[in-house]
Amino acid sequence: MDGQLGACAALRFLTDQLGYGVLIASPEGELLHSNAATAELPSGDSPFSVSKRLLLVQGMVCTQWVEQLPSGPHFFRCAVIKHRSTENNKFDADYRVAVTYGALKRAGDPMVMCVYSTLLRRKVEPEILRALYGLTPAEAAMAIGVYDGHSLSDLARDRSTSIHTVRTQLKRVMNKCQVRSQLELCQLLTSGPGVF
């Protein structure tokens, strides 16, 4: 059991950093762990819910839901769930789900679901941006400011720098991240590095 908890903790840490949701369930479908990115997933307006401690996906116990998916290689299955909001009927959402199960080949192995949706607003950490894209601390702060919706003039004022300095930093950020616009930068930071 300690090995399972250690593996769960390592996976949760990694996916928190990448911004993907993680749901870990027992072989019976009981929700064991979830990370911060999935805090809003089990709700009435998503395909994920919890009932009597069981993780449900599209109204089915998660283990049953996974069994009906096409088999993948090495204990791995993927699916895309198209979901229409029931509360306001105004948006469609795609949830990409990757599931591993039985990977340790031991009885009682947990099932791990990694979930990505554009509805999951990921927290962007400056250290991750610096490591992935070679940004300086000031450039990482600039990228996060743009991602959070601040205008360039607001960023200049908050940092007590000129608008020219902020624009120069933004150009460097976009070059390092290989994007051509602020919109592309926000899309990159929203989706994170491609995992699946």
3D structure, described in words:
- It is a single chain.
- The protein is of the alpha+beta class and 196 residues long.
- It has two domains: 2-116, 2-Layer Sandwich (Beta-Lactamase); 126-191, Arc Repressor Mutant, subunit A (Orthogonal Bundle).
- It is built from seven helices and eight strands, in the order αβββββαβββααααα.
- Strands 2-1-8-7-6 form a five-stranded antiparallel β-sheet. The chain has a three-stranded antiparallel β-sheet with strand order 3-4-5.
- Strand 1 (21-25) and strand 2 (31-34) form a beta hairpin.
- Helix 4 (137-147) packs across helix 6, helix 4 crosses helix 7 and helix 5 crosses helix 6.
- The mean pLDDT is 77.
Quick rundown:
The chain is an alpha+beta fold and 196 residues long. The protein has helices at 2-18, 62-67, 126-133, 137-147, 152-159, 163-177, 182-191; strands at 21-25, 31-34, 48-51, 54-57, 60-61, 76-84, 92-100, 111-116.
